[in-house]
Design a protein that fits this description.
Layout (H helix, E strand, L loop, with lengths): L1 E10 L5 H12 L5 E4 L4 E6 H19 L2 E9 L9 H10 L1
Antiparallel strand pairs: 1-3, 1-4, 2-3
Helix pairs in contact: 1-2
Length: about 100
């Protein structure tokens, strides 16, 4: 079964970018799991058991390395198009170009 997860990490200290970048790089190291990072979250997708195992390992590693942090996750059974952009988003992108 496929699982899609949207995850955001909020480290509870002043230097918050270092742990966030570290965490995203760790998520990117799993070859069987697709990843898409936006300005506010990272989306991961893959086999249910592999995604859950990865999150367990990497969230624990984040706590051990950086201390307190909040992880906010949304879970959806099944795959999604991770680079999806609706018609409104496409129109906004054209206006910026």
């Amino acid at each position: 079964m496929k699982l899609t997860v949207e995850i955001s990490m909020y480290p509870l200290h002043d230097d918050y970018l270092t742990p966030i970048k570290w965490f995203i790089e760790r998520l990117a190291s799993y070859p069987n799991i697709e990843r898409n990072t936006t300005a506010t979250c990272t989306q991961v997708q893959g086999d249910f058991d592999e995604v859950m195992a990865m999150l367990s390992v990497e969230m624990k590693a984040g706590y051990q390395k950086f201390g307190k942090a909040i992880f906010v996750c949304k879970f959806l059974q099944g795959p999604l198009e991770l680079d999806y952009q609706d018609e409104f988003g496409k129109a906004q992108a054209k206006e910026r170009d």
